[in-house]
Amino acid sequence: MKNLILSELNRIINRKKNKILLIISIIVFFISAFFIKLFQVGFYDQITTMPLNSLNFPPFLLREYHLFIILVLCPTIFIESFNHENTSGCYRNIMLRPFSKFEFFISKIISCSLISALFIFSIFVLSTIYGYIFLPKVEYTNFFNINNTFSSLESFFYNFKFYLLEYLIILSFLGISCLTSLTNKNSTLAFLGSIGVCIGLLYLSDKLSFLLFSTPSIFDMLSNTNNYVFIYSSLIIIITISISIIIFIKKDYLY
């Protein structure tokens, strides 16, 4: 299993497409950070706003960056990972190795999860540093729906929990991408299908809007207004991954 994970990580990191995507991601990050710094206003929604400072900057950067993560970065990496062997016809050679289908599938899930964790942690670190350098320096700050003020350490942990919940949402999208990849051999259709599922779930229930617009729901959860982000994300992960495992094991990729 360890060798499978390392092999998949190596493939993800060394793909030319992913290297280009990483460069684009960095550019988008700094463009987003620049414009947020320029206006120094953070949005909960179109009406409710808050002045930005060195302590509360990271969540609001993620608000602007989330759509790029969900609509571009994640589907490209995830679907390429799950669809590569299928579209290239390499499954026959892979299945001849002394690994079960289950191990092969789980190695991809773990690899994509690790890459996502590394990326979201990097964004957290970069946004924290950017805020401390370029935003107005303060000793205390506020966040939406919470009356208490936060010290530097408290705001750091608040921001960290915010990014952890974003990571949970990314994992739920990983499950969706995995399922659409296994049901669509064409990468483009799988890509569009993943985004289509997110949009469809939005119309199914407003509580699932966090897949596309995560920050209001995360703010609400951290203020104990609701906890459906955690509940629904966990359910999506469990359901989609479980169904994907069944499909992958049952499906014959040799022909």
Automatic annotation (TrEMBL):
Residues annotated as transmembrane: 20-44, 64-83, 104-133, 162-182, 189-205, 229-249
Swiss-Prot/TrEMBL keywords: Membrane, Transmembrane, Transmembrane helix
Domain of life of the organism encoding this protein: Bacteria
Any matching Pfam family: ABC2_membrane_4
PANTHER family named among the record's database cross-references: INTEGRAL MEMBRANE PROTEIN-RELATED, MEMBRANE PROTEIN
Record's protein name: ABC-2 family transporter protein
